[in-house]
Amino acid sequence: MAEQAQNLREFVRKNQGLARVIAVTSGKGGVGKTNTSVNLSIALAQKGQKVVLLDADLGLANVEVLLGLNSLYNLQHVITGERTMAQILVEGPGGVAVVPGTSGLARLADLSETGRQNVMAGLKQMQERADFVVIDTMAGIGKSATSFVLAADEVLLVCAPEPSSIVDAYAMMKTIYQKRDDAIVRLIANMVMNKNQASLVYSKLSGAAQQYLGRKLSYLGMIPRDPHVSQAVMQSHPFVLRYPASPAAKSILDIADRLITQRAASPGTESFLRRFAQTLGLGGSVQSA
Ligand SMILES: Nc1ncnc2c1ncn2[C@@H]1O[C@H](COP(=O)(O)OP(=O)(O)OP(=O)(O)O)[C@@H](O)[C@H]1O
Ligand SMILES: [Mg+2]
């Protein structure tokens, strides 16, 4: 316990520069956003990156459940000002700092000015202290659901090979590009049989993006359908740690490598917070944390 507190104190020391903010989203629910967010965060941490994993998925199978965490405080306490972001951080496996979510996020757009400023200050604090802020979002295109997606530096679009998943992923991509001209969307094909099937998912989506939206979708990687994923879920343990030699774990490690080496967004801008404020209808000012 004391060691954990020490680790978190270490964690909240300021970093050089600002973290890359990565939102993980999908069109349809249940296609693997939470599993991708959790395991990718751990893989990034294993490669020496400082990672904050923010749970903005209000579903039942959220990050905390997947990690077997049971936190006392969550983002609601940041919104009300009872706790700072650094105080609610929970140390998750692999040294990832987890920000526990709250159903209050569903009403993000309706928060009081103070509540929104508190969230913004907390996010700023995290962005100053990590290399990556990974946000597990919920499916759907409601205003609160999309505010993190529209503000993020890069969006990872998780898509399964089923036609319904591809159609919904296209709809999500369209919403993102309509609302944000300069969005960077990168595909992760999940639950695919093999690389060929992943290529097929990518060519369908990138073809539609090019033809109907005039946009380029980039390809980040694939995760095969692998029984180790659901086995790990049953054990409330991330597959990248429980089954490090599994095909899914190897793929996630590849994706982490590519994410680190292929930076899609231009570095060093404070644009995430500015865009986030805009999506919430706030001005650009953020109080310092
Ligand atoms: N690569 C995979 N191989 C096998 N099963 C998988 C894979 N990815 C996800 N799953 C299965 O799909 C289930 C749903 O995954 P997950 O909870 O990550 O999806 P989600 O997109 O976050 O769902 P929601 O929209 O409800 O938040 C998992 O419990 C797991 O059993
Ligand atoms: Mg989820």
**Largest β-sheet summary:** 8 strands, mixed
Regions with little confidence, pLDDT below 50 for 5+ residues: none
**What is the oligomeric state here?**
single chain
CATH H level, superfamily name? P-loop containing nucleotide triphosphate hydrolases
Estimate nothing, just give the exact number of structural domains: 1
The molecules bound to the chains, other than polymers, are: adenosine-5'-triphosphate, magnesium ion
Decide which structural class fits the backbone: alpha/beta
Strand content: 15-25%
Q: Report Rg.
A: 18 Å
SSE run = HEHEHHHEEHEHEHEHEHHHH
Strand order of the largest sheet: 3-4-2-5-1-6-7-8
Count, helices? 13
CATH class annotation: Alpha Beta
Please, could you describe this protein's structure?
This protein is of the alpha/beta class. The chain has one domain (2-11, 19-262): P-loop containing nucleotide triphosphate hydrolases (Rossmann fold, 3-Layer(aba) Sandwich). The protein is 47% helix and 15% strand. The chain contains 13 helices and 8 strands. The protein has an 8-stranded mixed beta sheet, sandwiched between helices. It binds adenosine-5'-triphosphate and magnesium ion.
What keywords describe this structure?
289 residues, alpha/beta, Rossmann fold, 8-stranded mixed sheet, 13 helices, 15% strand, binds adenosine-5'-triphosphate, binds magnesium ion
Task: State the gist of this model.
The chain has an 8-stranded mixed beta sheet with strand order 3-4-2-5-1-6-7-8, with helices on both faces. 47% of the residues lie in helices and 15% in strands.
